[in-house]
Amino acid sequence: MHISDKIAIFVSVKQQISDISEVLPGLLSELQSLRKTVDSLYAENRSLSRNVDKLLKENRELRKRLEKYEKPPKDSGNSGTPPSKEPVKSEIERRTKSLRKKSVNSVGGQLGHEGKTRKMVDAPDEIVDIASQFCTECGRDLSDVEGKLDYVIQEIDLPPITPIYRERRFYKKVCPCGCCNRDYAPRKRGGNAITFGKNIRAVATYLSVVQCMPYERLQSFFETMFNVRISQGTLANIVREMLDRSRPAIELIERLIKESAVVGFDESGCYVNGKLNWSWIAQTTYLTLVFRGAGRGAKVLEERFGDSLKNMVAVTDRHSAYFAIDFLDNQICLAHLLRNLEYLNDIDKEQAWAKEVQALLREAIHLRNERPTEIIPKENWLTRLDDLLKKNLDNLRKEFNELKRGIIKCRDYIFNFLENPVIPSDNNGSERGIRKLKVKQKISGCFRSDTGADAFHALHSIADTAWKNGQSPLDAILALV
């Protein structure tokens, strides 16, 4: 390399070094600007992260609040909600929807079903002959022409409804010995000379208790139908008087229930003079006892039935009070469980767990119906239930695990009806028995007094017991007069 080439390279390098010294301050300025931009972006990112966390939290809260609107509504078909609290739309759907599976049989009476129809009586109270008096063609008089019987029908009607005024005269007799004899109760001081007979009192009680008519409507009914004017106060006094007359019958029903091996229980709220009370029912196949309690706890039954509870198998829902009592055994209502499972099916139509549990319960009920008198071991059924309860439901909504935990708690009381044919698989009898109180409350709003509430409970017990034994509730009330 010549010296001239070396000198050229040196000059070039020197010039580059000079350029770098001039560029470095600019690069440093740009680097500081970039650092500020990065710091600003970092701060902005942190702010956005906080906002995202806040929005996610708000989103979770809103979803939780919206869940109750997204869930299918609860009604008497998929929960324990009573029909009286259903919205009109749910009530209409319930009347057209059933938990029963569709049968393969055709609609209507099946082969072997014994039909029933009204039969003609041998001795009618009145006979009316109907025949033509004139010819429809020529107009000739046919009154003297003997007719030929074509056909006969009988018509059922009510007689003219007019009150019967029965005068009762009471005579006292004086014996030669000087003793004054009266085989009747003395007249009450201040009593009215006009009283109401046993039929009016029995019908008033029957309509008030069995048909749940309020006193104002009863007053109008008697005046319109029978031309009998009766005040609402008198109607209330009649029902209260029947309460006193019913006490021996109520004591007998209570004693017989205490001696029963299987008893169904249920409870429901009722309002007395604007305050919440609780109506309780204890019932068997042939007996009904409805009474008012101060609360909803186990103490009410323990005070009423005492040590007899230890000899009973209680058929109930899953209310905790029943499992705090020392019963001989328990049977929970499978109809309640089937309704709760139906609600889970409404929540998630794709899942299979609730449907499998439903199928298991229905299969057990069907087996009991096919073999009503046999003792069926329950171990195999409990094993099949346990297999379903072991399944992980965390991927489903929380309601599934909630019901699963509830079933686990009462596992030992689900299939007892298989081993004892006397035990029913549901508590529908108790719910039907206590429903009359809800109907009365829906019509009248509440009971005005403790005495009125107790009278309704006692007289309903007698009427329902009579009905269960194939007797007329009206005849049972007449027997008390």
Description:
The chain is α/β, with parallel strands linked by helices. The chain has helices at residues 3-70, 88-95, 198-209, 215-226, 232-258, 298-305, 334-347, 353-370, 379-389, 398-409, 416-419, 428-444, 450-468, 473-478; strands at 173-174, 180-181, 262-272, 275-283, 288-293, 313-316, 329-332. It has a 5-stranded mixed β-sheet with strand order 5-4-3-6-7. It has a two-stranded antiparallel sheet with strand order 1-2. The longest helix has 68 residues, at 3-70. The chain is elongated and about 175 Å long.
Topology at a glance:
Elements: H1 3-70, H2 88-95, E1 173-174, E2 180-181, H3 198-209, H4 215-226, H5 232-258, E3 262-272, E4 275-283, E5 288-293, H6 298-305, E6 313-316, E7 329-332, H7 334-347, H8 353-370, H9 379-389, H10 398-409, H11 416-419, H12 428-444, H13 450-468, H14 473-478
Instruction: Note the beta-strand portion.
Output: 5-15%
The shape is: elongated
Order of helices and strands: HHEEHHHEEEHEEHHHHHHHH
Structural class: alpha/beta
Helix content: 40-55%
The number of distinct β-strands equals 7
